[in-house]
DNA sequence: CGGTTACCCTGGATGC
DNA sequence: TGCATCCAGGGTAACC
């Protein structure tokens, strides 16, 4: 669930506590979340190191450690999150950062254990690992770069926006909100978008993500919370996600929850009046297994 | 190689 | 009430 705004909110919450602090120890309660390093190598490398900087790269949380200690990457994925106060579900704690001179540790909880934690001995190795699987950050990508990347795929615009190799940070919720803002149907083939439409998407990416960051992200069910345990406020004012059957805030038509080709298995919310379906998926042609798609 | 699907996980919601 | 099934959704491996 954590997408760019939620990860940015985590980073902003961790920064005042972590930056400049010395790590006393890292306790790995579930080794399954480690990727590419052992619990021993992580604990050994990290003990005594100072956290110089906390930053975000796409949906990664990055802790840059003092010279020689490398850096730690945390991918919260679906249900990962940090707590600065004792978490409500101690059984979901997977990792604990103990800080010198601070009474409370920082807890990393992850209900579904989909999150990943990696230690890189060398910052440049982490940079290469990120670049192998990610394009430019969604808040940094230039219009021309975005246009070029969308022009060279045969996919629909929504799966293209969610592809971290195209641009980093957008997931299922914000892809829908961005395409609503730009008034583009999620099934529209990315390469057929006109320059004005790409410009609208480029503007919508920044507008939606910054609005969500200001609201401290999106919360639902038992999922994401800020590091202070608070719920993000974005879903109180959003346009599509979770609003099936409710009136579009722009035109009043009922919001539909559907599935689109290329993203079967994930819900897509759309206003079919504000986001006109492309020819290829309107009418009777766009069906999979007897289910109408739009 | 680009695109698509299966699977990883758990718990809350839904269905019978 | 109890049990089975579905669903969420980021990411990667495997597949076509």
Tally of extended strands?
12
- State the secondary-structure class: alpha+beta
Element order, helices and strands? HEHEEEEEEEHHHHHEEEE
Tally of alpha and pi helices: 7
User: Which outline best applies?
Assistant: globular
CATH first level of the largest domain: which class? Mainly Alpha
CATH topology of the largest domain: Helicase, Ruva Protein, domain 3
Percent of sequence in beta strands: 15-25%
Q: Main sheet: which strands, in order across? A: 1-6-7-5
What is the CA-CA span between the terminal residues? 24 Å
In CATH terms, what is the architecture of the largest domain? Orthogonal Bundle
Largest sheet: 4 strands, antiparallel
Mean of residue pLDDT values: 90
Outline the low-pLDDT stretches: 283-294
Q: Could you explain how this protein is built, in words?
A:
- α1 packs across α7.
- The chain is 27% helix and 19% strand.
- The two termini are 24 Å apart.
- The chain is an alpha+beta fold and 294 residues long.
- It has a four-stranded antiparallel sheet with strand order 1-6-7-5.
- The protein folds into two domains: 130 residues, Alpha-Beta Barrel (N-terminal domain of MutM-like DNA repair proteins), CATH 3.20.190; 150 residues, Helicase, Ruva Protein, domain 3 (Orthogonal Bundle), CATH 1.10.8.50.
- It binds a DNA duplex (16 and 16 nucleotides) through loops.
């Amino acid at each position: 669930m954590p997408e760019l705004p939620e990860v940015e909110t985590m980073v902003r919450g961790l920064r005042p506590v972590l930056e400049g602090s010395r790590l006393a120890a890292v306790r790995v309660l579930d080794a399954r979340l480690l990727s590419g390093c052992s619990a021993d190598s992580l604990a050994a490398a990290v003990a005594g190191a100072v956290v110089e900087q906390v930053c975000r790269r796409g949906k990664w949380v990055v802790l840059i450690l003092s010279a020689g200690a490398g850096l730690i990457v945390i991918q919260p994925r679906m249900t990962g999150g940090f707590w600065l106060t004792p978490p409500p579900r101690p059984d979901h704690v997977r990792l604990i950062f103990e800080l010198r001179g601070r009474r409370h540790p920082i807890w990393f909880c992850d209900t579904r254990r989909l999150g990943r934690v990696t230690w890189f001995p060398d910052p440049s190795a982490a940079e290469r690992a990120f670049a192998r699987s990610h394009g430019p950050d969604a808040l940094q990508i230039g219009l021309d770069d975005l246009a070029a990347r969308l022009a060279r795929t045969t996919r629909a615009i929504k799966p293209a926006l969610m592809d971290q190799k195209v641009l980093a940070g957008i997931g299922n919720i914000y892809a829908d909100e961005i395409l609503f803002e730009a008034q583009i149907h999620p099934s529209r083939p990315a390469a057929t978008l006109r320059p004005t439409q790409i410009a609208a998407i480029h503007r919508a990416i920044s507008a939606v993500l910054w609005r969500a960051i200001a609201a401290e992200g999106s919360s639902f069910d038992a999922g994401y919370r800020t590091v202070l345990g608070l719920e993000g406020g974005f879903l109180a004012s959003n346009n599509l996600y979770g609003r099936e059957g409710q009136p579009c805030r722009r035109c009043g038509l009922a919001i539909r929850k559907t599935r689109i080709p290329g993203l079967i298995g994930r819900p897509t919310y759309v206003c079919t009046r504000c986001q006109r379906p492309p020819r290829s998926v309107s009418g009777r042609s766009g069906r999979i297994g007897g289910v109408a798609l739009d």
